[in-house]
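Researcher: I'd like a candidate sequence for this fold, 219 residues long. If you have to choose between options at a position, lean toward the conservative one.
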C-alpha cells in the first residue's frame, strides 16, 4: 500500500482530493463518496449517520453534502455550527477525517444540484419530513403520488426531474480547520498525519483560511 509522502505537502487539500479521486476511479465500493457525518446536539450528545460527499473543493478546503434542513443532523449543525466527517476506503487501507465549521451552501448551488436529481428523488425531497416519525411507508408513498398528481408529472418516469427545490432542502459546506490522513501500515504501524489551520468567517458561505500546520500522530 502506498505510504504517505516522507515530506508532507504544505497544503493537504490536493492529497485529499487525489485520495477521493483514486477511490472513485478504482470503484473501491458502491459509494466511495459515502462518509460518516458526526454532529452534536446543544447538550453535547453526539450522533452519526452516512451522507454522500457531493463536492470537494481543493482550492478552499470544504466539502458539500445535501440534506433536509429540518433533519436531526441539520438541527444539530444549526445549533452548534460544527460537524466532523470521515471517509473510509477499506480496499485502499485509507481513512480521511475532516473537522470544522459548517455553513449552508449558496442557494443557487443547491438549486443547480437539485435540478440534476431524478424526478423520484425530487418528489421524495418534497414529501419526506426527514427524521420525523412515520406512520407507514404507504402514507408517505401516497403523499408522493398526490404531489406528483398535483404537479402533473409521472412519478414512475425515469426522466430527470424539473421540480423546483424546496426551501427546506439543500446543501451544507463543511469547512476544514482540521484534516487527518490515515494510511494502513504493517503490524498496526499505521501512518497518521494531522493538519490544522485557522478559519475566519468571510461571509455566510465562506471563510478566510490561515496557513496549514501539520504533525504526525502515533497510531
Ligand atoms: C449510502 C448512504 C447514503 C446516504 N446519503 C444521504 C445524503 O446524502 N443525505 C441525507 O440526508 N441522507 C443520506 N443518507 C441517509 C442518512 O444516513 C440518514 O438516515 C438521514 O440523513 C437522516 O439522518 P438524521 O436523522 O440524523 O438527520 C444516506 C444513507 C446511506 C446508507
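Model: Candidate sequence:
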Amino acid at each position: 500500500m502506498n505510504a504517505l509522502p516522507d515530506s508532507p505537502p504544505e497544503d493537504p487539500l490536493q492529497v485529499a482530493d487525489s485520495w477521493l479521486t483514486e477511490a472513485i476511479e478504482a470503484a473501491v465500493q458502491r459509494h466511495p463518496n459515502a462518509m460518516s457525518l458526526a454532529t452534536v446536539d446543544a447538550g453535547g450528545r453526539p450522533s452519526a449517520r452516512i451522507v454522500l460527499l457531493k463536492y470537494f473543493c481543493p482550492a478552499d478546503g470544504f466539502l458539500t453534502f445535501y440534506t433536509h434542513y429540518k433533519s436531526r443532523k441539520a438541527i444539530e449543525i444549526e445549533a452548534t455550527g460544527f460537524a466532523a466527517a470521515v471517509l473510509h476506503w477499506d480496499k485502499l487501507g485509507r481513512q480521511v477525517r475532516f473537522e470544522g465549521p459548517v455553513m449552508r451552501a449558496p442557494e443557487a448551488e443547491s438549486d443547480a444540484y437539485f435540478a440534476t436529481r431524478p424526478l423520484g428523488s425530487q418528489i421524495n425531497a418534497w414529501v419526506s419530513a426527514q427524521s420525523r416519525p412515520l406512520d407507514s411507508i404507504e402514507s408517505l408513498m401516497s403523499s408522493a403520488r398526490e404531489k406528483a398528481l398535483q404537479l402533473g408529472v409521472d412519478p414512475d418516469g425515469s426522466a430527470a426531474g424539473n421540480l423546483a427545490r424546496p426551501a427546506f432542502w439543500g446543501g451544507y459546506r463543511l469547512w476544514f480547520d482540521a484534516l487527518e490522513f490515515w494510511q494502513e501500515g504493517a503490524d498496526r504501524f499505521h501512518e497518521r498525519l494531522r493538519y490544522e489551520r485557522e478559519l475566519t468567517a468571510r461571509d455566510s458561505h465562506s471563510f478566510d483560511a490561515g496557513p496549514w500546520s501539520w504533525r504526525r500522530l502515533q497510531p
